[in-house]
Design goal:
The protein has helices spanning 12-22, 58-65, 107-117, 153-158, 168-178, 180-186, 233-244, and strands spanning 25-29, 36-37, 40-43, 48-54, 71-80, 89-101, 130-144, 147-152, 198-205, 208-214, 219-225. The chain is of the alpha+beta class. The protein folds into two domains: 12-158, Electron Transport, Fmn-binding Protein, Chain A (Pnp Oxidase, Chain A), CATH 2.30.110; 165-244, Split barrel-like. The strands form two sheets. Strands 1, 2, 3, 4, 5, 6, 7 and 8 form an eight-stranded antiparallel beta sheet that branches. It has a three-stranded antiparallel beta sheet with strand order 9-10-11. Strand 3 and strand 4 (48-54) form a beta hairpin.
Length: 255
């Protein structure tokens, strides 16, 4: 039997994971309250998201007074491209579930657990100006230029961020700033109608590369899948060079 073709892009659950790992802006919405800014957010494999909000926020008061099942809440996360694009938002994610207060004695312990996986300076404020909450996720919706898709929490628990997620921003900035020749070669894959715009590297993962084309009147995103998923920095670099038609070059590395 022929082997199935390799995936051309991350699954919906992986896209949620990637966007959450990159997102720097997040707000928590609960019914009847103004959106609350979130200084730290971290999605865990156990199926919840740990978030830090101002200690005086209405969200803290509401969840502290809610019943044992918590309060309904939606965490909105915004993933921005690391390049100066005309439309900088790459992805929006909405995580829906129940918000629970974290008991005072457990705040620092949980903060330390989060810091072990997701070091963030704002975690130092937990117990002082910030309070941790837990959002037990029931479902998620991710939206980008291709549309919106939903995913159940069971799939999120099984998914992991892309292995190159942490280096993606540096790679995209490096390609944009230092490899105009590679970008010009990659642009040859675009349909003729898109070849007259300004081309940027929008996203990269183990399955492929996405380009953003800023045209005179509108923007378009175009996906270039690799022949096979990359499993190391070396194979990722080689996959990009093969797409560009120059596989014999020594390599392509971000800072």
């Amino acid at each position: 039997m022929p082997r199935p073709a390799p995936p051309a892009a991350p699954s919906t659950a992986e896209r949620v994971r990637n966007a959450c790992a990159h997102a720097e802006h997040a707000v928590l919405a609960v019914p009847g309250m103004d959106p609350t800014p979130v200084s730290v957010h971290h999605m865990r494999q156990c199926g919840d998201a740990v978030i830090a909000v101002p200690a005086t926020s209405a969200a803290k008061i509401l969840t502290g007074d809610s019943d044992e099942h918590g309060a309904h809440g939606v965490l909105e996360l915004t993933d921005h491209a690391p390049l100066p694009l005309r439309e900088p938002v790459r992805t929006l994610v909405w995580l829906r579930g129940r918000v629970h207060a974290v008991p005072g004695p457990e705040q620092r312990t949980l903060a330390d657990e989060v810091a072990a996986e997701h070091p963030h300076p704002e975690l130092l404020d937990v117990g002082f100006g910030a309070t941790l909450l837990r959002l037990v996720i029931s479902s998620a919706v991710v939206a980008d230029s291709t549309g919106a898709e939903s995913v159940h929490n069971d799939e999120l628990r099984r998914a992991l961020p892309d292995p190159f997620c942490g280096m993606e921003s540096a790679w995209l900035q490096h390609m944009h700033a230092d490899h105009a020749d590679i970008m010009a070669r990659l642009a040859r894959h675009l349909p003729a109608r898109l070849r007259h715009g300004i081309v940027y590297p929008l996203a990269i993962d183990r399955y492929g590369l996405t380009l953003r084309i800023e045209g005179p009147h509108s923007d378009h995103d175009f996906r270039l899948p690799f022949g096979a998923p990359a499993d190391s920095i070396e194979t990722l670099s080689r996959a990009v060079l093969i797409l560009a038609g120059c596989p014999l070059r020594s390599g392509l590395r971000g800072g």
